[in-house]
């Protein structure tokens, strides 16, 4: 089990192939050798962000804390909204004209295509920058004859890391899934006194889960393994480790723990896909 204190994680400027300056607190990373590799970040963006319509060969969940994002016909995200972007499903274009703060989980999807690490990403982007240019999510390479070839920027990075063409899996979902948690009702969380939940969704045959839990002061909630828990508000402790707002708890497969609330607390559970 890991408990990450947000106050110990510095905000860094990170290189990225999309438009705008990314600032991120890197909360958690998985195992790059695993098909379930993942990265959890708290990302701050300025009021000038643009990304073209595109797709990934990995899954993504976004929780909007501050600001808004417009995903054109797919929908809009505002504070409190959550969206699931499945692998191989196109979305966007994505724009924002105000500062934002977003919890972003990116992870290997059900197909087993995996997820490249931040170090691999940065190294490949640096190498490609010597061969072409990145602008608004597109990588442009100039051939010897002077002609120009455009490619989705993430595709170009992935192919440099892996040394082969990116082949997308068949899409499991036709569109991303946008969720409005305020529209869901709280229901009792099993037999746990003082705990309620909103089950927002379970996705793919690998069982990716998105759940909100509300735990009353002095009540306890057993935590599931293979999952990330983000303290949206409130405070408490997990197995005697203090947890405050925006802290994160991670349980690997097979681990168990109990969260005890010191005040009324809301936890966002992001249950990772299981490959065992």
Provide a descriptive summary of the structure in words.
This protein is mainly beta and 276 residues long. The protein has a domain at 184-271: Jelly Rolls (Sandwich). Helices cover 8% and strands 44% of the residues. It has two helices and 25 strands. The chain has helices spanning 118-129, 153-162; strands spanning 2-4, 12-14, 22-29, 38-45, 49-51, 59-66, 69-70, 76-77, 82-85, 94-96, 100-107, 132-135, 138-142, 148-152, 177-179, 187-188, 195-203, 208-215, 220-223, 227-233, 236-238, 241-243, 248-251, 257-261, 265-271. The protein has a seven-stranded antiparallel sheet, with no helix packed on it. Strands 2-3-4-11-6-9-15 form a seven-stranded antiparallel sheet, with no helix packed on it. A hairpin with a 4-residue loop joins β17 (195-203) and β18 (208-215). The longest helix has 12 residues, at 118-129. The protein is elongated. The protein starts with a strand and ends in a 5-residue tail after the last strand. The model has no long low-confidence stretch (mean pLDDT 93).
Give a concise summary:
The chain has 276 residues and is mostly beta strands. The chain contains two helices and 25 strands. It has a domain at 184-271: Jelly Rolls (Sandwich), CATH 2.60.120.
Number of strands: 25
The number of helices is: 2
* Biggest β-sheet: strands ordered side by side in the sheet: 1-23-20-25-18-17-16
Q: CATH homologous superfamily name of one domain?
A: Jelly Rolls
Averaged pLDDT = 93
Share of helix among residues?
under 10%
Sum up the overall morphology in one term. Answer: elongated
**What structural class do helix, strand and pairing data support?**
mainly beta
Note the gap between the termini.
Answer: 18 Å
CATH topology-level fold name of one domain: Jelly Rolls
Low-confidence stretches: none
What CATH architecture of one domain do you see? Sandwich
């Amino acid at each position: 089990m890991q408990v990450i204190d947000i106050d110990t994680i510095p905000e860094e400027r990170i290189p990225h192939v999309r438009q705008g300056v990314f600032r991120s607190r890197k909360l958690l990373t998985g195992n790059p050798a695993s098909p379930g590799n993942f990265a959890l970040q708290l990302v701050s963006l300025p009021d000038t962000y643009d990304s073209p319509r595109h797709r990934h060969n990995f899954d993504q969940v976004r929780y909007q804390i501050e600001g808004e994002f417009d995903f054109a016909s797919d929908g809009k995200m505002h504070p409190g909204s959550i969206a699931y972007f499945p692998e191989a499903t196109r979305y966007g274009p994505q724009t924002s004209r105000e500062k934002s703060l977003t919890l972003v989980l990116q992870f290997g999807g059900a197909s087993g295509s995996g997820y490249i690490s931040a170090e691999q990403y940065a190294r490949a982007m640096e190498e490609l920058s010597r061969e072409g240019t990145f602008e608004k999510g597109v990588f442009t390479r100039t051939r010897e004859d002077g002609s120009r070839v455009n490619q989705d920027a993430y595709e170009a990075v992935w192919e440099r890391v892996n040394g082969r063409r990116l082949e997308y899996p068949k899409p499991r979902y036709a569109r991303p899934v946008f969720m409005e948690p305020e529209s869901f009702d709280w229901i009792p969380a099993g037999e746990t006194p003082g705990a309620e939940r909103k089950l927002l969704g379970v996705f793919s045959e690998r069982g990716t889960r998105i759940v909100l839990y509300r735990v009353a002061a002095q009540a306890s909630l057993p935590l599931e393994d293979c999952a990330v828990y983000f303290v949206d508000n409130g405070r408490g402790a997990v197995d005697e480790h203090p947890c405050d707002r925006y802290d994160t708890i991670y349980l690997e497969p097979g681990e168990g723990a109990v969260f005890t609330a010191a005040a009324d607390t809301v936890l966002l559970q992001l249950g990772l896909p299981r490959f065992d």
